[in-house]
């Protein structure tokens, strides 16, 4: 579906939700639950924590739905809320992070599946070494597949800054992965 059609559909659902239509709110949850969960999982590394943050994201969003400005895209607005919720959750839990080693893997053979799962676990572990700002741009770009302009909109940053942060994040991630392979 086209982004303009998505934005129009979301705008109508938000308007209905602001008027108290619970079905419209349910539709927004159905539309964005998976994306918000994946964002939270990649930022936090735990399926349980991601589920908690997904729930708190929708609660926060619906509590402040009256502040949503229709000239903005709902996608960007709720992603920003999710990002803030995940980063706040991470700050509260700092030091006690637990990585979920059971990332879903699909592949033709058990050896390839095992290697892929191991690589995903290494990447997720290395992601914890990134700053919150770096982790946010990596997750939004590579896991949520947002464009640079969408990331800029979500994070309220110029596109040039997004590209710079992503470059630094990739370099840091590469160094962390290289250090891990040197110790293995």
TrEMBL record:
Keywords noted in UniProt = Sigma factor, Transcription, Transcription regulation
For whether the record's keyword set contains rRNA-binding, the answer is no
The residue ranges of the RNA polymerase sigma factor 70 region 4 type domain are 121-173
Transmembrane region(s) = none
| Gene3D superfamilies assigned to the protein according to its UniProt record, in alphabetical order | 1.10.1740.10, Winged helix-like DNA-binding domain superfamily/Winged helix DNA-binding domain
What Pfam families is this protein classified in? Answer: Sigma70_r2, Sigma70_r4_2
RNA polymerase sigma-70 region domain: residues covered: 28-94
GO terms, molecular function: DNA binding; sigma factor activity
- One of this protein's GO BP terms? DNA-templated transcription initiation
- Which PANTHER family does the entry link to? RNA POLYMERASE ECF-TYPE SIGMA FACTO, RNA POLYMERASE SIGMA FACTOR
Protein family per UniProt: Belongs to the sigma-70 factor family. ECF subfamily.
Q: What is this protein called?
A: RNA polymerase sigma factor
Which organism's genome codes for this protein?
A: Parahaliea aestuarii
């Amino acid at each position: 579906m086209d982004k303009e059609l998505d934005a129009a559909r979301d705008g109508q659902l938000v308007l209905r939700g602001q008027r108290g239509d619970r079905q419209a709110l349910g539709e927004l949850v159905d539309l964005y639950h998976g994306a918000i969960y994946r964002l939270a999982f990649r930022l936090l590394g735990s399926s349980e924590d991601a589920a908690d943050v997904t729930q708190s994201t929708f609660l926060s969003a619906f509590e402040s739905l009256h502040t949503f400005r229709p000239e903005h895209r709902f996608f960007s607005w709720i992603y920003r809320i999710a990002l803030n919720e995940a980063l706040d959750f991470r700050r509260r839990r700092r030091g006690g992070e637990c990585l979920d080693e059971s990332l879903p893997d699909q592949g033709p053979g058990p050896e390839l599946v095992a290697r892929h799962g191991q690589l995903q676990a290494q990447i997720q572990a290395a992601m914890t070494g990134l700053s919150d700002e770096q982790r946010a741009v990596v997750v939004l770009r590579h896991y949520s597949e947002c464009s640079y302009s969408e990331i800029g909109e979500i994070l309220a940053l110029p596109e040039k800054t997004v590209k710079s942060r992503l470059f630094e994040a990739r370099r840091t991630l590469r160094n962390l992965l290289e250090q891990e392979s040197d110790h293995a």
